[in-house]
Amino acid sequence: MITDSSGGLRRFLLPLMTLFVYAFLYIPIAILIVFSFNDAVFPVHWNSFTLKWYKQLLHSPEIIQAWINSLIIAASSVSLSILMGLGLIYMSLFVPVRAVVRMSYLILVAPEIVLAVGLLSVLSYLSVPLGFGSLIVGHTLISLGFVIPILFDRFSELNPNIIEASLDLGATRWQTFRRILLPQMTPTIFAAALLVFTLSFDDFLISFFCTGGSVQTISLYIFAMIRSGVSPVLNALSTVIIVASSLLVFAFCLVRVKSRVF
Amino acid sequence: MQMFSRRFWNCVSVGAVTCAWLVIIFGALFIPKLVERLHNSRTINIFAWSDSIDPDTLHDFELQTNIRVNLTYYDSNEELFAKLRATNGVGYDLIVPSDYMVKRFTDENLLQKIDKKKLNFVNRIDQRLLGLPFDPGNDYSIPLEWSIIGICFDADLFQNGLPEKSWSMIFDQTLIDGKLVAPGDARELCTIASLYLFGLTGKSLSPDQINKIVNLLREQKHRVLAYSGTRADLLVAAHNASLAAVANVYVARGSKHVGHLGFAIPKEGGFLTIENFVIPVESKKTDSVYQLLNFLYQPDVIYQSCMNAVVLPVTVDEQKRLTKLPVFKKLLDISSTEFKKLHFFGEVLTDEQIDEIWRRLKAP
Amino acid sequence: MIEQEAKFCLRHVKAFVLGVPAFIWQFVFFYVPLFFLFIISITKSWNILGFGSITMANYWAMLAWAPVKIISASLLMAVMTTSICVVLAYPVVYFLCRYVGRLRSFMMFLLILPFWTNFLLHVYAWFMMLEKHGLVNNLLIKLGLISQPVSLLYSYLAIVIVMVHSYLPFMIFPLYSVMEKIDKQLLEASADLGATFWQTFFRVIFPLTLSGLMTGVVLVFVTSFAEFVIPELVGGDKFFFVGNLITHYFLVARNASAGAAFTIVSSLVVLGAISGIYAFVRSAMPGAMRGKKL
């Protein structure tokens, strides 16, 4: 594989290290998936193949409710953040908005726990009921931190001449936005939506602090299960989530390749 | 004139739009409160500890009576107290606090008296769990479930039982064999340490005594596998730890899967924890609440929830029924002398003292 | 780019209506809370009606032994995690960029995947691995390195392992995106001029990948400094790091003022650490970071 004149040790070391890193990243997941089919409560030895943990998964109202809650929150935060991002782009046709875009960089850099703790404090102070509302607020905030830079990155790459040409030909800025900008940005919007959907679905910290005990999301459910005991149902749930995420990422990569832009 | 107008209108519109959006956003955030006010009459809001009430049972109740039940969980008694203090209990109709919390609530007049005539099960409750110091007349609280914190041990390792039936098994470095699991709850661990070092005299502790507790716990930390109240039985069952200071209900849970979990109540006294139903003073839906309570305390409902989850029954008949199963027999078989020696976690240490000990203990 | 119209008109208002929520959301839910944290850190009592008197007591309490120890332990953990991630990431990225041709997108896809799956699942997966009867123990016994199973879980080592596992993709991405842009001809030229592999690495590859490396370092350092889930679950809740103490202040002790003070102090510490790293790099490699901002 390595054909140039690299040192003998390096010839083996590089592929070996690469293999080690991939194994390090994937073997735990493989074990997790394998044991979801194991017929034993404690994952010590392999007993026999069974699908009973998956059946239990489908019949657990708690898990189903947590799943639904996570979907609702993720969908809301995606919609809100994308709409706000697009709105900001529209406004940038009238007024320079670089300051607002720069504001969103800090959200990415700041540790999530600082966000969560600040949000919890302010919402408690204002006696805002903690639940779906506070969760959606927090998740949308994080989503904005990703959506705004991604959309504006793409926006700045677009050919400004086309926009000027459109305005010169008499189109209003709204028409320009709808007919010219949006179509050119659609793959990016889709990619950003997919990214923040996954981020929101997997998010733990904000959910942990802002849930107020009444709303259970998938991440919180997994955390509670890990804390209170081992159950192969968790393995089954993990496998389902891993498979679903893989399909999403695959779709994302396909879109990227197909459209050749990002 | 035109220039002045434009800037003026710009400012006005900026202000108006911003305010409008703020109103919309915060309005949306406060919608749940509004919805609650509307649905008020036929909904009960319960605030409970994670494992205490079985959601399936509540579902059955909803189907039978058409009264909706909202279950919200709290993580710690401190969280419960802070929330209730802040809102004066408004928003909840039924709460499940621990024993010492009941006294705190009654001291602050946050609870209403329970009309025991409306309940049909009070005479079936185990007498040992009534009339306790935190609510002598049981005017404000009804026990829901109880457990005893003692020492769980690996019977494969300690084949003749514990060499010393004492809390020194988890503190004395010469006696500890293998790793142990310490309680995850700060108040539990600190109070047990306090009992071990000074006995529970009822007097508040001096800073010097606090230092001694910190030193003892930091020394113990070398042998601690994990601080967890809820995984302790699993860790001993899997032979990861040989000892654990844990509630007997978790030992029951573990014993459903393996046979080598032993449980002993130390001679200095174990700890009794009782989760109670209380009704906040602001609740107006007492009729629905009493209906729910009568439903939850039916014999079959109690028996089922004990079999499904990790609880010990408070009613005498169900206790007798469960002793037929070896798992529960082991745990319900407590002599009256042992029961009398049980302590409560109570208020030996203040919240600030516990916090200080916990921070100094956990620092790496 | 776009000319502003001289008259006030409703179109401007429409743009403002659509665009301003992005600003409001960030301002109200991020910047205001940061300010709020600062306000409650300098007072001891506060409620909806007003704030108590200003006092620095919360900050003086941060000089106690426990908070200082916790912050320094977190710094050490962050340094360890980041270093291990750097050491593991460079060879892999170099290998992918230099020697892997057609399979490269697929292999990068495999590296992206862990980032996109729920991070708690990865933590749980390591439970299975590190348990007394889990895979790692079985392997070590089979290899004859140990005779009795060892409790790897609930230890400092377990925390480091799971941290590296969780944050390695954050280091690999930025590094990959800069390294793949390096012209292969540069490396060939360097070899032609007689440089050894290590000389090429330190004089050509390293400076060119520095911006990506810095991005990765910042991401991994800051997140591992503030992490609390991994120490709590995998460390058996035995070691408090910055994230654990913050969680303790806000959710267990319910002392938001002290918690806010600690959050601010920790944030300043990590900011200082990052600035220190940047300053060091900038002084050691004067040309490499020109034009790159934090």
The percentage helix of chain B is: 40-55%
What's the CATH topology name of one domain in chain C? MetI-like fold
Structural class of chain B: alpha/beta
Strand order of the largest sheet of chain C: 1-2
State the secondary-structure class of chain C. mainly alpha
Query: What's the overall geometry of chain C?
Result: globular
What is the number of independent domains of chain B?
2
Report the C-alpha radius of gyration of chain C, rounded.
Answer: 24 Å
Average pLDDT score of chain B: 86
CATH fold group of the largest domain in chain B: D-Maltodextrin-Binding Protein, domain 2
* Uncertain residue ranges of chain B: none
Query: What is the CATH domain class of the largest domain in chain B?
Result: Alpha Beta
How would you name the oligomeric state of the polypeptide chains in this document? heterotrimer
The main sheet of chain B comes to: 6 strands, mixed
Strand content of chain C: under 5%
Taken from the alpha-carbon principal axes, the silhouette of chain B is globular
Description:
The complex is a heterotrimer of chains A (262), B (364) and C (294). With 262 residues, chain A is mostly helical. Chain A has one domain (61-259): MetI-like (MetI-like fold), CATH 1.10.3720.10. Helix content of chain A is 77%, strand content 0%. Chain A is globular. The model of chain A has no long low-confidence stretch (mean pLDDT 87). Chain B is α/β, with parallel strands linked by helices. Helices cover 46% and strands 14% of the residues of chain B. Chain B contains 15 helices and 9 strands. In chain B, helix 6 packs across helix 7 (207-221), helix 7 (207-221) packs parallel to helix 15 and helix 11 crosses helix 12. With 294 residues, chain C is mainly α. Chain C has a domain at 64-116 and 151-284: MetI-like fold (Orthogonal Bundle), CATH 1.10.3720.10. Chain C has helices at 10-41, 57-61, 65-99, 104-116, 119-130, 135-142, 156-179, 184-192, 197-226, 229-234, 242-252, 256-284; strands at 46-47, 50-51. Chain C has a two-stranded antiparallel sheet with strand order 1-2. In chain C, helix 3 crosses helix 9, helix 7 packs across helix 9 and helix 11 runs antiparallel to helix 12. Chain C starts with 9 loop residues before the first helix and ends in a 10-residue tail after the last helix. Chains in contact: A-B, A-C, B-C.
